[in-house]
Amino acid sequence: MHPLTWGTLQLIDITEGFPMRGKIGLVVGLGVGYVLGTRAGRARYEQIKKQAEKVWELEPVQKQVGKAKDFAQTSALAVPRVAWDGVVKVIATVAEKQGTPGQKLDSAIDEVEDAVDDVKKAAD
Q1: Which domain holds residue 20?
Q2: What is the pTM of this model?
Q3: Are the beta carbons of 32 and 24 closer than 8 angstroms?
Q4: Which of 56, 85, 101 is the last residue of a domain?
């Protein structure tokens, strides 16, 4: 061991020869903190979970869930179908249209505007 001098006080490095001592203590401390924290955290999680389940089962919440399901089964499914039909119309218009690139672009813009209107109607 090599003594270290600090002012008139000599210090001895007791970890010399044991470089892992501090690391092992850190790992053990982290492990103990993790275990204790997860136990406390799990209890709080279960408490929050119970409260969330109570809220989920309330009548007003279930009414809103039903409304969301109904919307998803009706108009929400119509929007992607109408949008796809609009894309197909735009592509067909550009592919079949004779004329200059500018004329094709004008036709495509007109079709896109019609497709946007169709999607808005489907969303309502």
Answers
A1: 3-56
A2: 0.37
A3: no
A4: 56
